Amino acid sequence: MRRKLAAGNWKMNGLVDDLSEIKALTEAHPDPDVDMLICAPATLIAQMAWARGTHALQIGGQTCHAERSGAHTGDISAPMLRDAGASHVLVGHSERRTDHGETDADVAGQAAAAHAAGLVAVICIGETLDQRESGHALTVITDQLRGSLPPGATAANTVIAYEPVWAIGTGKVPTTEQIGEVHGTLRATLRDLMKQAEGVRLLYGGSVKGSNAGEIFAVADVDGALVGGASLKAADFSPIVSALENA
Ligand SMILES: O=C[C@H](O)COP(=O)(O)O
Question: Its domain of life (predicted)?
Answer without folding.
Answer: Bacteria
